[in-house]
Amino acid sequence: MSRIRIQGGACLQGETVIQGSKNAALPIMAAAVIHKGCTVLHRCPKIADVFVMEGILKKLGAQTSWEGHSLILDCRNIHSFCISSCETEKMRASILLAGSLLTREKRAAMGYPGGCVIGSRPIDVHLEILSRMGVCRRENDGRLMMTADCLHGIRYRFERRSVGATENAVLAAVGAKGWTVLENAACEPEVIALCGFLRKMGVKICADGRGMICIMGGCELSDTEYVIPPDRIAAGTLLMAGAAVRGQVTLCEAPLGQLDSLLALYQKMGGQYLVSGGTLKTDSRGVQWALPLTETASYPGFPTDMQPLLMAVCCTLQGESMIRETIFENRFRTALELRKMGARIRIDRHNAWIEGPSVLKGCRVEASDLRAGAALVIAALCAEGETIIDSCEYIERGYENLYENINLLGGRIRRENDDVDETEITGKSEKNKTEVTGKSGNF
Ligand code: UD1
Protein backbone atom coordinates (compact mmCIF):
# COMPACT_ATOMS: atom_id res chain seq x y z
CA MET A 1 0.00 0.00 0.00
CA SER A 2 1.18 3.51 -0.74
CA ARG A 3 0.59 6.83 0.94
CA ILE A 4 0.74 10.53 0.29
CA ARG A 5 2.10 13.26 2.53
CA ILE A 6 0.44 16.64 2.36
CA GLN A 7 1.77 19.82 3.93
CA GLY A 8 -1.22 21.93 4.82
CA GLY A 9 -1.61 25.67 4.68
CA ALA A 10 -0.83 26.42 1.04
CA CYS A 11 -3.30 28.48 -0.96
CA LEU A 12 -4.37 27.21 -4.38
CA GLN A 13 -4.21 29.57 -7.32
CA GLY A 14 -4.08 29.16 -11.06
CA GLU A 15 -5.52 27.12 -13.90
CA THR A 16 -6.07 23.42 -14.25
CA VAL A 17 -7.54 21.27 -17.03
CA ILE A 18 -10.28 18.79 -16.18
CA GLN A 19 -9.70 15.12 -17.07
CA GLY A 20 -12.10 12.92 -19.04
CA SER A 21 -14.95 11.40 -17.06
CA LYS A 22 -14.34 8.05 -15.37
CA ASN A 23 -18.02 7.23 -15.09
CA ALA A 24 -18.57 7.99 -18.79
CA ALA A 25 -15.45 6.17 -20.02
CA LEU A 26 -16.19 2.85 -18.26
CA PRO A 27 -19.68 2.15 -19.71
CA ILE A 28 -18.54 3.39 -23.13
CA MET A 29 -15.60 0.96 -23.04
CA ALA A 30 -18.10 -1.79 -22.18
CA ALA A 31 -20.29 -0.64 -25.08
CA ALA A 32 -17.34 -0.87 -27.51
CA VAL A 33 -17.38 -4.65 -26.97
CA ILE A 34 -20.75 -4.90 -28.75
CA HIS A 35 -19.32 -3.79 -32.10
CA LYS A 36 -17.18 -6.24 -34.08
CA GLY A 37 -14.90 -3.42 -35.16
CA CYS A 38 -12.84 -0.49 -33.84
CA THR A 39 -13.64 2.31 -31.45
CA VAL A 40 -11.43 5.27 -30.60
CA LEU A 41 -12.09 7.11 -27.36
CA HIS A 42 -10.46 10.52 -27.13
CA ARG A 43 -9.79 12.30 -23.81
CA CYS A 44 -9.94 8.93 -22.09
CA PRO A 45 -8.64 9.32 -18.51
CA LYS A 46 -5.50 7.36 -17.65
CA ILE A 47 -6.71 6.07 -14.32
CA ALA A 48 -6.58 2.71 -12.58
CA ASP A 49 -10.25 1.84 -13.21
CA VAL A 50 -9.87 2.46 -16.94
CA PHE A 51 -6.75 0.23 -16.96
CA VAL A 52 -8.73 -2.50 -15.15
CA MET A 53 -11.50 -2.32 -17.76
CA GLU A 54 -8.88 -2.29 -20.54
CA GLY A 55 -7.29 -5.40 -19.00
CA ILE A 56 -10.65 -7.21 -18.96
CA LEU A 57 -11.32 -6.31 -22.61
CA LYS A 58 -7.87 -7.63 -23.56
CA LYS A 59 -8.60 -10.93 -21.82
CA LEU A 60 -11.84 -11.17 -23.78
CA GLY A 61 -9.75 -10.89 -26.96
CA ALA A 62 -9.76 -7.16 -27.75
CA GLN A 63 -6.60 -5.42 -28.92
CA THR A 64 -6.01 -2.13 -27.22
CA SER A 65 -3.50 0.69 -27.54
CA TRP A 66 -3.06 4.31 -26.47
CA GLU A 67 -2.06 7.36 -28.47
CA GLY A 68 -1.75 10.10 -25.89
CA HIS A 69 -5.16 10.17 -24.26
CA SER A 70 -6.87 8.37 -27.13
CA LEU A 71 -7.70 4.76 -26.37
CA ILE A 72 -8.04 2.52 -29.41
CA LEU A 73 -10.19 -0.56 -28.90
CA ASP A 74 -10.17 -3.18 -31.63
CA CYS A 75 -12.94 -5.62 -30.69
CA ARG A 76 -13.04 -7.62 -33.95
CA ASN A 77 -11.53 -10.72 -32.39
CA ILE A 78 -13.28 -10.96 -29.06
CA HIS A 79 -13.60 -14.70 -28.54
CA SER A 80 -14.51 -15.10 -24.89
CA PHE A 81 -17.58 -14.35 -22.80
CA CYS A 82 -16.00 -15.27 -19.44
CA ILE A 83 -14.62 -12.83 -16.88
CA SER A 84 -12.94 -14.14 -13.75
CA SER A 85 -14.18 -13.15 -10.31
CA CYS A 86 -10.84 -11.62 -9.38
CA GLU A 87 -11.29 -9.25 -12.32
CA THR A 88 -14.92 -8.31 -11.66
CA GLU A 89 -14.23 -7.81 -7.96
CA LYS A 90 -11.84 -4.99 -8.77
CA MET A 91 -14.55 -2.72 -10.06
CA ARG A 92 -18.31 -2.18 -9.85
CA ALA A 93 -18.53 -1.18 -13.52
CA SER A 94 -17.49 -4.70 -14.59
CA ILE A 95 -21.17 -5.69 -14.31
CA LEU A 96 -21.85 -3.55 -17.40
CA LEU A 97 -20.09 -6.18 -19.48
CA ALA A 98 -23.07 -8.45 -18.80
CA GLY A 99 -25.28 -6.28 -21.05
CA SER A 100 -22.70 -5.93 -23.80
CA LEU A 101 -21.55 -9.58 -23.84
CA LEU A 102 -25.17 -10.79 -23.91
CA THR A 103 -25.76 -8.52 -26.89
CA ARG A 104 -22.63 -9.66 -28.71
CA GLU A 105 -22.13 -13.28 -27.65
CA LYS A 106 -25.62 -14.18 -26.34
CA ARG A 107 -23.97 -15.29 -23.13
CA ALA A 108 -21.84 -14.02 -20.28
CA ALA A 109 -20.11 -15.76 -17.39
CA MET A 110 -18.72 -13.55 -14.68
CA GLY A 111 -18.14 -12.99 -10.99
CA TYR A 112 -20.06 -10.48 -8.93
CA PRO A 113 -18.81 -6.89 -9.18
CA GLY A 114 -16.75 -5.24 -6.46
CA GLY A 115 -16.07 -1.52 -6.13
CA CYS A 116 -15.90 1.13 -3.44
CA VAL A 117 -17.28 0.07 -0.06
CA ILE A 118 -19.94 2.74 0.27
CA GLY A 119 -22.97 0.54 0.81
CA SER A 120 -24.32 -2.92 0.02
CA ARG A 121 -24.52 -2.12 -3.72
CA PRO A 122 -26.76 -4.97 -4.89
CA ILE A 123 -27.31 -5.78 -8.58
CA ASP A 124 -30.87 -7.07 -8.25
CA VAL A 125 -32.29 -4.43 -10.61
CA HIS A 126 -29.65 -5.24 -13.28
CA LEU A 127 -30.57 -8.92 -13.06
CA GLU A 128 -34.32 -8.31 -13.03
CA ILE A 129 -34.16 -6.27 -16.23
CA LEU A 130 -31.94 -8.81 -17.99
CA SER A 131 -34.28 -11.62 -17.03
CA ARG A 132 -37.29 -9.67 -18.34
CA MET A 133 -35.41 -9.33 -21.63
CA GLY A 134 -35.12 -13.10 -21.88
CA VAL A 135 -31.85 -13.86 -20.09
CA CYS A 136 -31.65 -17.23 -18.29
CA ARG A 137 -29.40 -17.09 -15.27
CA ARG A 138 -27.84 -19.56 -12.95
CA GLU A 139 -25.25 -19.22 -10.26
CA ASN A 140 -22.33 -21.52 -9.83
CA ASP A 141 -19.71 -21.07 -7.12
CA GLY A 142 -20.58 -17.40 -6.72
CA ARG A 143 -20.37 -16.83 -10.45
CA LEU A 144 -23.17 -15.67 -12.72
CA MET A 145 -23.81 -17.69 -15.88
CA MET A 146 -26.19 -15.94 -18.24
CA THR A 147 -27.52 -16.95 -21.63
CA ALA A 148 -29.99 -15.33 -23.98
CA ASP A 149 -30.74 -17.01 -27.30
CA CYS A 150 -33.04 -14.17 -28.18
CA LEU A 151 -33.11 -10.92 -26.23
CA HIS A 152 -36.36 -9.04 -26.67
CA GLY A 153 -37.20 -5.40 -26.10
CA ILE A 154 -39.24 -4.49 -23.03
CA ARG A 155 -40.99 -1.55 -21.43
CA TYR A 156 -39.54 -1.10 -17.95
CA ARG A 157 -40.17 1.49 -15.29
CA PHE A 158 -37.45 1.82 -12.64
CA GLU A 159 -38.92 2.03 -9.15
CA ARG A 160 -35.77 3.78 -8.06
CA ARG A 161 -33.23 5.38 -10.36
CA SER A 162 -30.01 3.43 -10.88
CA VAL A 163 -27.13 4.60 -13.06
CA GLY A 164 -25.55 1.18 -13.58
CA ALA A 165 -28.82 -0.71 -14.10
CA THR A 166 -29.94 1.90 -16.66
CA GLU A 167 -26.63 1.49 -18.52
CA ASN A 168 -26.84 -2.31 -18.44
CA ALA A 169 -30.43 -2.20 -19.71
CA VAL A 170 -29.36 0.11 -22.57
CA LEU A 171 -26.46 -2.19 -23.52
CA ALA A 172 -28.68 -5.28 -23.58
CA ALA A 173 -31.40 -3.40 -25.49
CA VAL A 174 -28.93 -2.76 -28.33
CA GLY A 175 -29.02 -6.51 -29.04
CA ALA A 176 -32.71 -7.06 -28.33
CA LYS A 177 -35.45 -7.56 -30.87
CA GLY A 178 -37.62 -4.47 -31.23
CA TRP A 179 -37.87 -1.39 -29.05
CA THR A 180 -36.95 -1.11 -25.38
CA VAL A 181 -38.51 1.76 -23.48
CA LEU A 182 -37.05 2.69 -20.10
CA GLU A 183 -38.99 4.98 -17.80
CA ASN A 184 -37.71 6.73 -14.71
CA ALA A 185 -34.23 5.81 -15.94
CA ALA A 186 -31.14 7.57 -14.57
CA CYS A 187 -30.39 10.86 -16.38
CA GLU A 188 -26.83 11.39 -15.15
CA PRO A 189 -24.65 13.03 -17.84
CA GLU A 190 -22.67 9.77 -18.04
CA VAL A 191 -25.83 7.86 -19.06
CA ILE A 192 -26.57 10.51 -21.68
CA ALA A 193 -22.96 10.22 -22.90
CA LEU A 194 -23.36 6.43 -23.29
CA CYS A 195 -26.52 7.02 -25.34
CA GLY A 196 -24.68 9.63 -27.44
CA PHE A 197 -21.84 7.19 -28.09
CA LEU A 198 -24.23 4.41 -29.12
CA ARG A 199 -26.11 6.80 -31.40
CA LYS A 200 -22.82 7.65 -33.09
CA MET A 201 -22.14 3.93 -33.46
CA GLY A 202 -25.41 3.52 -35.36
CA VAL A 203 -27.97 2.61 -32.68
CA LYS A 204 -31.38 4.26 -32.88
CA ILE A 205 -31.59 5.63 -29.37
CA CYS A 206 -33.30 8.59 -27.82
CA ALA A 207 -32.84 9.87 -24.26
CA ASP A 208 -34.97 12.84 -23.27
CA GLY A 209 -32.79 13.71 -20.25
CA ARG A 210 -35.83 13.44 -17.98
CA GLY A 211 -35.90 9.68 -17.45
CA MET A 212 -37.22 8.25 -20.71
CA ILE A 213 -34.83 6.27 -22.93
CA CYS A 214 -35.97 4.43 -26.09
CA ILE A 215 -33.63 2.00 -27.85
CA MET A 216 -34.19 0.12 -31.10
CA GLY A 217 -32.34 -3.20 -31.07
CA GLY A 218 -30.54 -4.87 -33.95
CA CYS A 219 -29.20 -1.76 -35.73
CA GLU A 220 -26.12 -1.99 -37.92
CA LEU A 221 -23.06 -0.69 -36.09
CA SER A 222 -20.01 1.12 -37.40
CA ASP A 223 -16.51 2.08 -36.26
CA THR A 224 -16.73 5.17 -34.06
CA GLU A 225 -14.59 7.94 -32.63
CA TYR A 226 -15.93 9.63 -29.54
CA VAL A 227 -14.67 12.31 -27.16
CA ILE A 228 -15.22 11.38 -23.52
CA PRO A 229 -16.83 14.37 -21.74
CA PRO A 230 -14.96 16.10 -18.92
CA ASP A 231 -15.38 14.67 -15.43
CA ARG A 232 -17.87 16.65 -13.35
CA ILE A 233 -16.76 15.02 -10.10
CA ALA A 234 -13.08 15.77 -10.80
CA ALA A 235 -14.09 19.37 -11.58
CA GLY A 236 -16.10 19.47 -8.34
CA THR A 237 -13.13 18.09 -6.42
CA LEU A 238 -10.86 20.92 -7.56
CA LEU A 239 -13.62 23.44 -6.89
CA MET A 240 -13.95 22.11 -3.32
CA ALA A 241 -10.15 22.08 -2.87
CA GLY A 242 -10.09 25.77 -3.82
CA ALA A 243 -13.03 26.48 -1.49
CA ALA A 244 -11.35 24.75 1.48
CA VAL A 245 -8.20 26.87 1.21
CA ARG A 246 -10.02 30.03 0.02
CA GLY A 247 -8.08 29.96 -3.23
CA GLN A 248 -8.73 31.16 -6.76
CA VAL A 249 -8.85 28.23 -9.13
CA THR A 250 -9.74 28.32 -12.81
CA LEU A 251 -11.13 25.10 -14.27
CA CYS A 252 -10.46 24.76 -18.00
CA GLU A 253 -12.64 22.42 -20.08
CA ALA A 254 -15.01 22.05 -17.13
CA PRO A 255 -18.38 20.40 -17.82
CA LEU A 256 -20.31 23.64 -17.50
CA GLY A 257 -24.01 22.96 -17.15
CA GLN A 258 -23.40 19.76 -15.17
CA LEU A 259 -22.18 21.58 -12.09
CA ASP A 260 -25.29 23.64 -11.35
CA SER A 261 -26.24 21.99 -8.04
CA LEU A 262 -22.66 22.26 -6.79
CA LEU A 263 -22.18 25.86 -7.91
CA ALA A 264 -25.44 26.83 -6.17
CA LEU A 265 -23.99 25.50 -2.90
CA TYR A 266 -20.65 27.14 -3.60
CA GLN A 267 -22.39 30.50 -3.92
CA LYS A 268 -24.32 29.87 -0.69
CA MET A 269 -20.99 29.35 1.08
CA GLY A 270 -19.84 32.74 -0.21
CA GLY A 271 -17.88 31.59 -3.27
CA GLN A 272 -17.99 33.56 -6.50
CA TYR A 273 -17.55 32.32 -10.03
CA LEU A 274 -17.48 33.47 -13.59
CA VAL A 275 -18.01 31.40 -16.70
CA SER A 276 -16.05 32.66 -19.65
CA GLY A 277 -15.20 30.95 -22.92
CA GLY A 278 -15.58 27.39 -21.62
CA THR A 279 -13.66 27.98 -18.39
CA LEU A 280 -14.93 28.37 -14.87
CA LYS A 281 -13.09 30.97 -12.82
CA THR A 282 -13.70 30.58 -9.12
CA ASP A 283 -12.88 32.89 -6.24
CA SER A 284 -13.20 31.35 -2.79
CA ARG A 285 -11.90 34.25 -0.72
CA GLY A 286 -15.43 34.91 0.56
CA VAL A 287 -16.25 31.29 1.40
CA GLN A 288 -17.43 31.17 5.03
CA TRP A 289 -21.13 30.37 5.45
CA ALA A 290 -22.35 27.01 6.71
CA LEU A 291 -24.92 25.13 4.62
CA PRO A 292 -28.18 24.42 6.50
CA LEU A 293 -29.13 21.20 4.67
CA THR A 294 -27.67 19.49 1.62
CA GLU A 295 -29.28 16.26 0.44
CA THR A 296 -27.69 13.96 -2.10
CA ALA A 297 -29.96 13.08 -5.00
CA SER A 298 -29.84 11.65 -8.48
CA TYR A 299 -28.98 14.09 -11.29
CA PRO A 300 -29.59 17.02 -11.51
CA GLY A 301 -29.52 16.97 -7.70
CA PHE A 302 -26.40 17.15 -5.57
CA PRO A 303 -24.26 14.06 -6.44
CA THR A 304 -23.50 11.50 -3.74
CA ASP A 305 -19.94 11.30 -5.12
CA MET A 306 -19.43 14.93 -4.03
CA GLN A 307 -20.80 14.38 -0.53
CA PRO A 308 -17.53 13.46 1.27
CA LEU A 309 -15.74 16.33 -0.48
CA LEU A 310 -18.39 18.80 0.63
CA MET A 311 -18.15 17.42 4.17
CA ALA A 312 -14.44 18.27 4.25
CA VAL A 313 -15.17 21.87 3.18
CA CYS A 314 -18.00 22.19 5.73
CA CYS A 315 -15.41 21.69 8.49
CA THR A 316 -14.01 25.10 7.53
CA LEU A 317 -17.33 26.98 7.42
CA GLN A 318 -18.81 29.22 10.16
CA GLY A 319 -21.61 27.42 11.99
CA GLU A 320 -23.35 24.09 11.64
CA SER A 321 -23.82 22.43 8.25
CA MET A 322 -26.00 19.41 7.73
CA ILE A 323 -25.69 16.75 5.03
CA ARG A 324 -28.25 14.01 4.31
CA GLU A 325 -27.06 11.01 2.29
CA THR A 326 -29.97 9.43 0.43
CA ILE A 327 -28.23 7.18 -2.13
CA PHE A 328 -25.70 4.97 -0.31
CA GLU A 329 -26.11 3.81 3.30
CA ASN A 330 -22.44 3.64 4.23
CA ARG A 331 -21.00 6.84 2.87
CA PHE A 332 -20.05 8.73 6.03
CA ARG A 333 -16.80 6.89 6.67
CA THR A 334 -14.88 10.05 5.81
CA ALA A 335 -16.28 11.58 9.00
CA LEU A 336 -14.31 9.12 11.17
CA GLU A 337 -11.03 10.17 9.56
CA LEU A 338 -11.94 13.86 9.58
CA ARG A 339 -12.64 13.59 13.32
CA LYS A 340 -9.08 12.33 13.83
CA MET A 341 -7.98 15.62 12.26
CA GLY A 342 -10.08 17.61 14.72
CA ALA A 343 -13.38 17.93 12.87
CA ARG A 344 -16.56 18.06 14.94
CA ILE A 345 -19.03 15.83 13.14
CA ARG A 346 -22.09 14.00 14.52
CA ILE A 347 -23.67 11.20 12.55
CA ASP A 348 -27.14 9.76 12.98
CA ARG A 349 -28.03 7.22 10.32
CA HIS A 350 -28.32 9.17 7.05
CA ASN A 351 -27.61 12.58 8.56
CA ALA A 352 -24.36 14.30 9.40
CA TRP A 353 -23.98 17.58 11.29
CA ILE A 354 -20.66 19.37 10.84
CA GLU A 355 -19.81 22.07 13.34
CA GLY A 356 -17.39 24.65 12.00
CA PRO A 357 -15.01 26.17 11.78
CA SER A 358 -12.58 23.60 13.11
CA VAL A 359 -8.84 24.02 13.15
CA LEU A 360 -7.90 20.78 11.40
CA LYS A 361 -4.58 19.26 12.39
CA GLY A 362 -2.47 17.03 10.20
CA CYS A 363 -2.25 13.39 11.32
CA ARG A 364 -2.24 9.89 9.84
CA VAL A 365 -5.52 8.91 8.18
CA GLU A 366 -6.69 6.27 5.75
CA ALA A 367 -8.59 6.53 2.47
CA SER A 368 -11.49 4.06 2.59
CA ASP A 369 -12.66 4.65 -0.96
CA LEU A 370 -12.06 6.88 -3.96
CA ARG A 371 -14.06 9.97 -2.97
CA ALA A 372 -13.36 9.57 0.75
CA GLY A 373 -9.66 9.66 -0.13
CA ALA A 374 -10.08 12.81 -2.20
CA ALA A 375 -12.01 14.39 0.69
CA LEU A 376 -9.05 13.73 2.97
CA VAL A 377 -6.75 15.43 0.46
CA ILE A 378 -8.98 18.51 0.70
CA ALA A 379 -8.99 18.42 4.50
CA ALA A 380 -5.21 17.99 4.56
CA LEU A 381 -4.69 20.99 2.29
CA CYS A 382 -6.28 23.28 4.86
CA ALA A 383 -4.96 21.48 7.97
CA GLU A 384 -2.07 22.63 10.13
CA GLY A 385 1.09 20.60 9.58
CA GLU A 386 1.53 17.34 7.76
CA THR A 387 -1.16 14.76 6.97
CA ILE A 388 -0.33 11.26 5.82
CA ILE A 389 -3.06 9.53 3.82
CA ASP A 390 -2.66 5.76 3.64
CA SER A 391 -4.14 3.60 0.87
CA CYS A 392 -3.91 6.41 -1.68
CA GLU A 393 -4.38 3.80 -4.44
CA TYR A 394 -8.11 4.35 -3.95
CA ILE A 395 -7.69 7.97 -5.05
CA GLU A 396 -5.81 6.89 -8.15
CA ARG A 397 -8.70 4.67 -9.26
CA GLY A 398 -10.53 7.76 -10.43
CA TYR A 399 -8.22 10.77 -10.55
CA GLU A 400 -5.54 11.33 -13.12
CA ASN A 401 -2.65 13.46 -11.87
CA LEU A 402 -4.65 14.88 -8.96
CA TYR A 403 -1.52 15.41 -6.87
CA GLU A 404 0.44 17.06 -9.68
CA ASN A 405 -2.50 19.29 -10.59
CA ILE A 406 -2.86 20.44 -6.99
CA ASN A 407 0.89 20.98 -6.72
CA LEU A 408 0.84 23.09 -9.87
CA LEU A 409 -1.79 25.24 -8.14
CA GLY A 410 0.50 25.67 -5.12
CA GLY A 411 -0.23 22.59 -2.99
CA ARG A 412 2.44 20.38 -1.44
CA ILE A 413 1.74 16.70 -1.96
CA ARG A 414 4.32 13.97 -2.03
CA ARG A 415 3.66 10.29 -2.78
CA GLU A 416 5.48 7.39 -1.16
CA ASN A 417 5.50 3.70 -1.98
CA ASP A 418 6.34 1.11 0.63
CA ASP A 419 9.14 -0.19 -1.56
CA VAL A 420 10.34 2.99 -3.25
CA ASP A 421 12.03 6.13 -1.96
CA GLU A 422 10.01 9.26 -1.56
CA THR A 423 9.27 11.09 -4.79
CA GLU A 424 8.61 14.78 -5.05
CA ILE A 425 5.66 15.47 -7.31
CA THR A 426 6.53 18.66 -9.03
CA GLY A 427 3.89 18.89 -11.69
CA LYS A 428 4.92 19.29 -15.30
CA SER A 429 7.89 16.98 -15.64
CA GLU A 430 6.20 14.27 -13.59
CA LYS A 431 3.09 14.70 -15.71
CA ASN A 432 5.12 13.97 -18.81
CA LYS A 433 6.56 10.93 -17.10
CA THR A 434 3.04 9.67 -16.45
CA GLU A 435 2.26 10.20 -20.14
CA VAL A 436 5.20 8.13 -21.23
CA THR A 437 4.59 5.22 -18.88
CA GLY A 438 0.84 5.32 -19.49
CA LYS A 439 0.21 4.48 -15.87
CA SER A 440 -1.66 6.56 -13.37
CA GLY A 441 -0.27 7.17 -9.94
CA ASN A 442 3.13 5.75 -10.80
CA PHE A 443 5.33 8.63 -9.94
C1 UD1 B 1 -22.86 4.97 -10.21
C2 UD1 B 1 -21.49 5.63 -10.20
C3 UD1 B 1 -21.13 6.07 -8.80
C4 UD1 B 1 -22.23 6.95 -8.23
C5 UD1 B 1 -23.58 6.27 -8.35
C6 UD1 B 1 -24.74 7.15 -7.93
C7 UD1 B 1 -20.30 4.55 -12.01
C8 UD1 B 1 -19.18 3.64 -12.41
N1 UD1 B 1 -20.50 4.69 -10.70
O1 UD1 B 1 -22.77 3.81 -9.38
O2 UD1 B 1 -19.92 6.80 -8.87
O3 UD1 B 1 -21.96 7.18 -6.86
O4 UD1 B 1 -23.83 5.87 -9.70
O5 UD1 B 1 -24.77 8.31 -8.67
O6 UD1 B 1 -20.92 5.18 -12.83
N2 UD1 B 1 -29.26 -0.24 -6.34
C9 UD1 B 1 -29.98 -1.35 -5.98
N3 UD1 B 1 -30.01 -2.42 -6.86
C10 UD1 B 1 -29.37 -2.37 -8.07
C11 UD1 B 1 -28.65 -1.23 -8.42
C12 UD1 B 1 -28.60 -0.16 -7.55
O7 UD1 B 1 -30.55 -1.43 -4.89
O8 UD1 B 1 -29.45 -3.37 -8.81
C13 UD1 B 1 -29.19 0.91 -5.41
C14 UD1 B 1 -27.77 1.16 -4.90
O9 UD1 B 1 -27.44 0.33 -3.81
C15 UD1 B 1 -27.84 2.63 -4.54
C16 UD1 B 1 -28.80 3.20 -5.58
O10 UD1 B 1 -29.53 2.09 -6.09
O11 UD1 B 1 -28.41 2.76 -3.26
C17 UD1 B 1 -28.13 3.94 -6.72
O12 UD1 B 1 -27.07 3.15 -7.22
P1 UD1 B 1 -26.61 3.23 -8.75
O13 UD1 B 1 -27.15 4.48 -9.36
O14 UD1 B 1 -26.93 1.95 -9.41
O15 UD1 B 1 -25.04 3.37 -8.58
P2 UD1 B 1 -23.92 2.69 -9.45
O16 UD1 B 1 -24.36 2.54 -10.86
O17 UD1 B 1 -23.38 1.52 -8.73
How would you describe this structure in keywords?
single chain; 443 residues; alpha+beta; UDP-n-acetylglucosamine1-carboxyvinyl-transferase, Chain; 2 domains; 5-stranded mixed beta sheet; 25 strands; 25% strand; binds uridine-diphosphate-N-acetylglucosamine
Describe this protein's structure:
The protein has 443 residues and is of the alpha+beta class. The protein folds into two domains: 213 residues, UDP-n-acetylglucosamine1-carboxyvinyl-transferase, Chain; 206 residues, UDP-n-acetylglucosamine1-carboxyvinyl-transferase, Chain, CATH 3.65.10.10. 33% of the residues lie in helices and 25% in strands. It contains 15 helices and 25 strands. A five-stranded mixed β-sheet has the order 22-23-1-24-25. It has a four-stranded mixed β-sheet with strand order 2-15-17-16. Helix 12 links the parallel strand 22 and strand 23. Helix 4 packs parallel to helix 6 and helix 5 runs parallel beside helix 6. The two termini are 14 Å apart. The C terminus is likely disordered. The structure holds uridine-diphosphate-N-acetylglucosamine.
